[in-house]
Amino acid sequence: MSGLRAALDERRFVVTAEVAPPRDADPEAIGRKAAGLRGWVDAANVTDNQGANVRMSSLAGSVLLRQAGIDPVMQLTCRDRNRIALQSDLVGAAAVGIRNVLLLTGDHPTLGDHPDAKPVFDLDGVQLVWTARTLRDDGTLLSGRPLATRPSWLIGTVENPFAPPAALRARRLAKKVAAGAEFVQTQYVFDVDAFARWVGMLRDGGVTERCAVIAGVGPIRSRRMLSFLTGSVPGVHVPEGLRRRLAGVPERRVEEEGMRVCVETIQALAAIDGVRGVHLMVFGHEDEVPDIVRRAGVRPFAELEGRR
Amino acid sequence: MGAEQAMGVEQGMGVERVLPFRPRIPAALAYALHALLARNRFYRRLAASVERRPVLYRAFTAGERVAKERLFGCRMCGQCALPATGYACPMTCPKQLRNGPCGGVRPDGSCEVDRTRRCVWVVAWTRAEGAARGADLDLLQRPVDNRQWTRSSWINYWQGRDEGLSVAHGDADPRPRLVERA
After folding, report:
1. What tens digit of pLDDT does each residue of B88-98 get?
2. Is the per-residue pLDDT at A261 higher than 90?
3. Helices (H) and strands (E) in chain A — how many of each?
4. For residue A280, what are the β-bridge partners?
5. How confident is the model at residue B81 (pLDDT cuts 50, 70, 90)?
6. CB-hemisphere CA count at 13 Å for A32?
7. Contacts 24+ apart (CB under 8 A), B159-167
8. Which terminus of chain A, N or C, has less C-beta within 10 A?
9. Is residue A136 very low, low, confident or very high in pLDDT (cuts 50, 70, 90)?
10. Between these two residues, A154 and A306, which has the higher pLDDT value?
11. What per-residue confidence (pLDDT) applies to B171?
12. In angstroms, what separates the C-alpha of B141 from chain A's closest C-alpha?
């Protein structure tokens, strides 16, 4: 398990994936998902009650993923915790050996399975990144109290290059990088040209030198998934051209066409100066990751590593 | 005032539903008003004197609340960010984001929580850019001091307590640490 930091340091093209913790206390669930990914990804995100639905905590999930041999990226959101709990979880993560954290604001509770919950949002995503850097680099809590043993995780964030206001999105990431973000994983990229323009703005602002851009990608498997992505998931933008392309094939071939689009997208993204890797979103189809990585040809040694 | 408006009257820690509020006055007018109320020696003394008298302080704060609630949907966080957001109140964002929009803004610029309302930060960006103040949104906004809810932000501002609310990227003191208030 060399992990995300090593891959970035060695300037390899990074592949990350996502492991959603189970909705119950099954200790084996994470390991089952990890089995298909081992050797094919540099790290995998463990989501924090994604979509504001209750699941096993990302801290517990990250520990289990680490035991299963994959470098976890522990996601932590501002939705459910105030600054005391956030700092406590960050410190705890460092103590149990979690080497990467991904800090975000989080979906609003009204979108999840407990819409009656109290939204916390004591800090916002930028302030949480800032707080984490303070814990690590200054060795102090927000209160100013010193930490005798400092954490050493890599700090990540998220950005959606396609959400309005478009002109602000590169500057917003620049702000997160100023606060301490060292890598960013993006929302689904379907519009490669628009994404390339956003990365261009980041390059011009010197942001790509300080922050590794990892583009979010994933296959569209069916027309149903397409309409779900465009209608129900906040912040996903599917361009008209892609919609027409998927509409132009019979339903039984949509899955294969969607996979082809995904592979082409990864190859196009790998050619953009400043893009350091891809984040694969396959939602429960972890077994597809090796196939995607192999077909995209972005990790020539992946199969070898897989056998190790 | 309609029911929607009255919601903001409920004071406290923001337990009630928070929904984006569209400012009722143009940005240009808000910037001009700010110039009138800008910190100076007179206002500093006035603020100190009002703060020493609890009854007067309550009356002053109630007046501030009424004015800012009508104009900006103010929720009385006591540490006003309006001058740096094109006078669109970030505390009316359902996630109370102080540092810019979340990733869930819909393609038409509406809020992910309530599609009938425009994202506070889309409004903020449009208003600030229109007044050549877009760079205000690049400031790093420090975490809110939750002890200041229901306090007068004008009195805090006039006495210089808001100076540390935000910092520019390259500033000498880049720490997010809570602003210490006198």
Report:
1. 999 999 999 99
2. yes
3. 13, 8
4. A17, A217
5. very high
6. 9
7. B159/B44, B159/B47, B159/B48, B159/B51, B160/B39, B160/B44, B161/B79, B162/B79, B162/B80, B165/B79, B165/B81, B165/B141, B166/B81, B166/B84, B166/B139, B166/B140, B166/B141, B166/B142, B167/B139, B167/B140, B167/B142
8. C
9. very high
10. A154
11. 61
12. 8
Q: Which among A108, A165, A178 is the nearest to B113, CB-wise?
A: A108
In tens, the pLDDT along B104-123 reads 999 999 999 999 999 999 99
- Residues linked to residue B166 through DSSP beta bridges, in sequence order: B141
The total of structural domains in chain A comes to 1
Asked if A83's CB is within 8 angstroms of B119's CB, the reply is no
Q: Assign A211 to helix, strand or coil.
A: coil
Q: Does A171 touch chain B (CB under 8 A)?
A: yes
The closest of A106, A61, A102 to A80, measured between CA atoms, is: A106
To the nearest whole number, what is the mean pLDDT of chain A? 94
Residues 6 or more apart whose CB falls under 8 angstroms from that of A306 comprise: A38, A39, A40, A290
CB A44, CB A70: distance < 8 Å: yes
Assign residue A73 the CATH number of its domain: 3.20.20.220
The pLDDT value given to residue B178: 52
- Chain B residues within an 8 Å CB radius of A105: 95, 97, 102
Alpha helices in chain B (DSSP H): 3-7, 27-37, 41-52, 54-72, 120-130, 153-158
Say if residue A166's pLDDT is above 50. yes
Predicted confidence (pLDDT) per residue in A113-126, tens digit? 999 999 999 999 99
Return the sign of the alpha-carbon dihedral for residues B48, B49, B55, B58: negative
CA atoms of A13 and A8, how far apart (whole Å): 8
CA distance A296 to A291: 8
Question: Which pLDDT belongs to residue B177?
Answer: 66
Of B106, B112, B175, the CB nearest to A108: B112
Tokens of B22: 């569209």
Interface A–B counts its CB contacts (< 8 A) at 127
Calpha distance A57→A271 (Å, rounded): 36
Instruction: Judge contact between B128 and B122, C-beta under 8 A.
Output: no
Q: What is the mean pLDDT of residues A236-261?
A: 93
The predicted structure's pLDDT at residue A236: 85
pLDDT tens digits, one per residue of A73-89: 999 999 999 999 999 99
Nearest CA-CA distance, residue A50 and chain B, Å = 13
Instruction: Please answer yes or no on whether B178 and A121 come within 8 Å at the CB atom.
Output: no
**Given the structure tokens 């949480």, which residue do they identify?**
A128
Domain containing A146: what range? 3-307
- For B176, the token pair is 């997010």
What token pair was written down for A230? 């465009």
